[in-house]
């Protein structure tokens, strides 16, 4: 409702409105009228003119009328709200703020920053805990709201690709996209023709700036792929099974024929780790500084790269391990096996945490979504399956004619699957049944490595004939957090980040299926401790105290009575004074009367000399 | 075909010149920040460790007295001034910021028993073993002037404690009885006696300024109203389980300056007791940790914590509602700590001990002193909050609670624990073999109060 309309109401109808009450309502009669202002007059005239046109009859039921029927409490609240609004509205120009109050926060954004449900309040006897919980919940709610507000201000928006009427997006070629977008983005689609040492495994660094490719026949190269600057290029003269960046772009690990090696970005060999042999696949857990390796001898090993020590070596007893991925949400390693099972591993347990039978044939590839909600697997049975790994339930199953050899999931949930030399990208594989790919591209050889670039709309494909960088609009997270992974960071910033990250390195013992487990109340330990305490003390110190009734005469000591009694006492003192004053007054009065009487008496007596009066 | 590909302009993300600060765009999306809890926990752990690393509470030692320091007094208006009286009758005035003595005067013969600065800060009172009360000017006498008291009152008996009214020219002393004096008169305007006992300390309530609390040597704490002639209430403390040879009285009493119906008394039975003035039936909290008699106690001006000085050569800081101390200070050279004060800016603690030194401590051992840069302060606040959040995790608690103790105290604590356990075990056995309800469970709080007399 516009303010003009409201003004009109308050003048024509006689309904009380908080807005006007300050101006022309006085408590005692209608004696005084507030000095009129020129803008009010103008407003009134306008309204009257309008009113004449509209007529009285078709007036809508106003909000104020509707309010009459509400309960007093609601009304009060409404009243208050309105007052607040009106305070905003008061402008000298008479114009109203079209968006009064704070901006609304969309519900979905609030939901995005929600950490957990509100806790049930403890009983009244734990009043300190109650206030503590209330306060912390208030703070977290405020943080949630502020974060949601801030979310509206993020500068970048995600990419997209939409076909025209009847045009299929999967038929759009990479060249068309590269030509349609700006030059810098167009330059992100390129091919590296490296037919000598292929096929290639690839890996992007955490910030997405750097790319390492490792050819099967020993060729390893680091590239700042956006500027196409070659950082180093070596041939290790051995077969290369996998390459992986470590925590920053200054170091990478190469799984070679026999041992695991670590090189720096200039291609200088830093370490040859002889405890890690026959490594086939590697995963790096960035927050734990752990390099997890899966070997041909069925060993899953963890290397702490910050101190250079092997944390644990687990014999999985499941044969050759060449399918591996990590869950980025809880740092659990997923391994795929030839018998069709996928197993979940943490460094704290020698046995698998979970074993899932996913396929009827061997598992070819596994990928886990960024939020740790969905897992996508592909197997020799030519099926592509989607699982909810919080509940370990299958969600969707697709049949791919050739079966997918490599899978990769992007930050925004696009799935890329390589079948032979064709790379297909799917959208929303877990929510809606997908019938055709979002994009497709044929590369020049069998795909061996597939990786989405973080924070970019780019998919890197390593294959028999080199490396292809594909443009996949809508793949990357548009807004990065510079304190976490900053693609534009300087050397100094990187150093600072490295120190901070090392300081808050999470210990491998904290890896578990539920990453928030550390924040839960440990009731079991408390109960155990309490039991021990009761045993030691001989009684329960937390037991409810036996109720001892207070001696209280019924009705005598109710709060009202007590107050009344107190007042009586207070009055008693005053009354004494008053009584005394009255007494004094009475006495003086009496005295005065006596005197007067005497006087009159005296005057009434006849003296002997009166007879001489004339 | 409509297409948009992510393309960031580097100018939006890289600073223009080297003189600018780096641009740090943020995105608070929780999915970009995995392992929130584990990372915060690690930060909290690091912060706790660093706190222990930086915990260097000892700041300075003020030496100059030629006998043990018997009493300390805070200046009421100047933060940097401290007064101390020693066992040879000498009073020294210290400048704390320069850490030097600015004035020395021979106030009494024998001990200086008590000292208090008048509320206006222009003069101070001392009492001594020579049965005199003296009032001194705060200013140093000029060149050629003699150091003389403004007034001297000769009392009948030895005085043991002294406190001044918050607003009026009235002060109280204790000895054989509690006396209320007018500054203008040479004889007390009121005397309170209770039996034939002597009193060890007297203290005015900072809010209800007419109220007085005092500790008597017959194990009782007595509260007075200055406007009436009879004491309000009397509590008797008993430590029936301690050695009988020991005296079992409260040594000092200190009112909570913020919630002035609470007071804490330092007891000979190694404990401190916080009472609510209105319910003297049992103490609110029994503060245990000392392994010898507690000699002095003083509240922080925030009223949240207090510090106690003990005969066991340590100082302990207790939160007002916690049964155990959060901090213990000791040095190799510090002997029995006789008097303790918490500075009026709540940042420092001053202790006077037997071996003639006054020591200056930080109230928060790991706190950085001086002006903090905004980022520094923010980081400190953040780590403080994290420590609070994860304080109950066993790893963090273990590190935060760890204190090095002198060997003797460590062993004595252990011994006391063994004794206590044995006593409890015995009681449990007795209870087990007697009629149910015949041996009731008496809580620690109830154990120490014998009776309340009105």
From TrEMBL, chain A:
Database matches in SMART domains: BING4CT, WD40
Pfam families xrefs: BING4CT, WD40
Location of the protein in the cell: Nucleus, Nucleolus
Domain BING4 C-terminal: 437-515
Polar residues bias locations: 10-25
Chain positions covered by the region annotation Disordered: 1-110, 556-614
Protein name: WD repeat-containing protein 46
UniProtKB/TrEMBL annotation, chain B:
Start-end of each WD repeat: 62-104, 287-318, 330-371
Main location: nucleus
One GO biological process term: female gamete generation
GO molecular function: ubiquitin-like ligase-substrate adaptor activity
Ribonucleoprotein listed as a keyword: yes
Keywords from the UniProt entry: Nucleus, Repeat, Ribonucleoprotein, Ribosome biogenesis, rRNA processing, Ubl conjugation pathway, WD repeat
SMART domains for the chain: WD40 (SM00320)
GO cellular component, one term: small-subunit processome
InterPro entries, per the entry: Sof1 (IPR007287), WD40/YVTN_repeat-like_dom_sf (IPR015943), WD40_repeat_CS (IPR019775), WD40_repeat_dom_sf (IPR036322), WD40_rpt (IPR001680), WD_repeat_DCAF13/WDSOF1 (IPR051733)
Record pathway: Protein modification; protein ubiquitination
Subcellular location: Nucleus, Nucleolus
SUPFAM superfamilies assigned to the protein according to its UniProt record, in alphabetical order: WD40 repeat-like
Keyword rRNA processing found: yes
Family under the similarity heading: Belongs to the WD repeat DCAF13/WDSOF1 family.
UniProt-recorded name of the protein: DDB1- and CUL4-associated factor 13
